[in-house]
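Slide 14.
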Amino acid sequence: MKKVLSLVLVFAMLTLVAGCSCSEKKAEQETTTIAWQKGESLFGTKLKEYFNECQRNNKKGIKAKQKLSTGFGEKNLPKRIGYTFVDLNADGTEELLVSLIDMKDKLNNYVIAVYQYTGDGIKRVLEGWSRNTYYLMKDKLILNEASGGADDAEIAKLHMRENGFEYVSTLSMKYGKKDKINYLYAKVGKPENTKEFRVSEKYWQDKCKEWEDQVDVNNVKLIKDFK
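Slide 15: predicted structure.
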């Protein structure tokens, strides 16, 4: 009898846990849906601009007008442009992130523009292109990979505060004397507290991989599907 009662209690507890999990998942889905509805309402005019240009497949027109960011020189643009909403600065209003999408390789999913909704309307606060790429990370930071050519490269984590971005930490690769490469790592805080120090090539590469593994490509819709 005790064994039967124990089994009944275990079953009841499992049912309760499953019920809680389902409720939490449902609440999360509802929150996401509300955020998307709000985002598409706030940024509808900007999304419509992208949608119209994608329909016309008019990359040159976009670049010439400088109205929209397109990740200059990209191919198959209309099929690859996507968008999502993320509250990057924790002010209660999502920002619009427009990205190039490649489902096969997440590191080709880079952000080409971040738009913020302000009292003055929609403002572009970040723009990327093929040699200065931005990525959304799982912790709502922005990862930036930049190259100045053969001489230097940089990968950095950025945090949005109010209407601008500031560095959190940076990895730099710079050529020194006799073409020796210096691998540098900087933890960024207040300017007077910023510390930069040399690291090994392995440390640098491991850190790069760690940051790249945190790139988030979930919850993205294609501009061509925007209604």
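Speaker note: The helical segments are 2-42, 44-56, 59-65, 77-80, 201-212.
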